[in-house]
Amino acid sequence: MIDEKLDTVRLQNLAYGYRQSATLLAAIEIDIFSKISAGARTVDTIARAADITALNAERMLAACAALGLVVKDGENYSNASDVERFLVKSAKSFVGPWLTTMGRSDYGAWNRLGEYLRSKKPPRILGVYESYTVEDARKLHAATFSIGMGAGRRFARLCDLSRRKLILDLGGGSGCYCICAAQKYPQIRGVVFDLPSVAVVAREYIAHNGFSDRITAQGGDFTKDDFPPGADVVILASNLPQYSPEIIRRVVKRAFEALDAGGEMHVIGEMLNNDRTGPIGPALWALNEAIYGSTGVAHSERDTMTYLEDAGFIEVTATDFIPGSLTRVTGYKPPR
Ligand SMILES: C[S@@+](CC[C@H](N)C(=O)[O-])C[C@H]1O[C@@H](n2cnc3c(N)ncnc32)[C@H](O)[C@@H]1O
Question: Nearest residue CA, atom 24 of ligand 1?
Fold first, then answer.
């Protein structure tokens, strides 16, 4: 029996989903949202402010309204609340460079996803990071720093580090978690452990933020190199989908061994729910790894908790960190 109510609209919207992405990235690029925030409200005033034709402004505003990026009231447009907060250039919370860099970096490759999926080449452990240069790292972390500082501040607010002394941040990137912890807790020190090219860039961010005396950056590969001793907090943030369960399991076990007795570990990352049916972000970050030919897959919250429990951590919990995007799994190394 044919269901007459079925149609192709959902499938069309998915198939042409790249247009949604491109609309958002172009709106950021021509800075429409800042112009609206600064007072341009109608098609004509927005067109003038953004220096595009009224015809193109009308097209963009209709698309942005359909995507829920702007709200139309009569002839006037205003920004949706998340757009007003995160996509207005003058705001401290502006994340435009992060979205445009990350949103565009794999754009062309995703257009050939089917080809990548047919590849039978054996996976490479470091995937995208295999031949990472200082310039690659500088470009990536110029984009991740602002968003990372938001995550770092949240971490420092949620986790009481007032009695901790040393954070080991595995794959710490720009150093944002250590920098935010050092800003909040005057006694805390940190080691950002990242690939050698990234450690160079981490040192730049650490110095720029005035913490070179309390935070160091050490070059190394967390899948195989020894971790520095003496930490009572270990963080592994935004590194899950790039690696297989076996690799993450080993990293967590080695982190457990390196950690002081009574210390704590936080794995923060894109995790699937335990039914492995979503959310979309973690599932698609893992699919992205087909392009980079790594061992990466999506890990569920339960999987991640098991890595910590099997390593010996106790009181392991999973909590939302950024709902719909990042989960935080925390465990404690038993006191001696
Ligand atoms: C998505 S970024 C996250 C950076 C930071 N943790 C944050 O949340 O802002 C992932 C970081 O992990 C680092 N990384 C990935 N694999 C690594 C490895 N095998 N050893 C050391 N660092 C690694 C990358 O260089 C990059 O800086």
Answer: 171
Per-residue model confidence as pLDDT tens digits over 274-325: 999 999 999 999 999 999 999 999 999 999 999 999 999 999 999 999 988 9
The reply to whether domains 9-105 and 125-332 share a CATH topology is no
For ligand 1, whether the C-beta of 251 sits within 6 Å is no
**Segment 283-286 long-range contacts (CB within 8 Å, at least 24 positions apart):** 285/241, 286/241
* CATH assignment, 125-332: 3.40.50.150
Q: Whose CA is nearest to atom 13 of ligand 1?
A: 171
Question: Does the beta carbon of 129 lie inside 6 Å of ligand 1?
Answer: yes
Identify the residue whose C-alpha is closest to ligand 1 atom 23: 171
CATH 1.10.10.10 fits 9-105, yes or no: yes
Model confidence, pTM: 0.94
The verdict on the CB of residue 205 being under 6 Å from ligand 1 is: no
pLDDT tens, residue by residue, 42-92: 999 999 999 999 999 999 999 999 999 999 999 999 999 999 999 999 998
Domain coordinates of the chain in residue numbers? 9-105, 125-332
Find the 242 Cα to ligand 1 centroid distance in Å: 10
Q: What residue owns the CA closest to ligand 1's atom 27?
A: 173
| Ligand 1 neighbour 86 (Cβ under 6 A) | no
**Is the minimum distance from the CB of 269 to ligand 1 under 6 angstroms?**
no
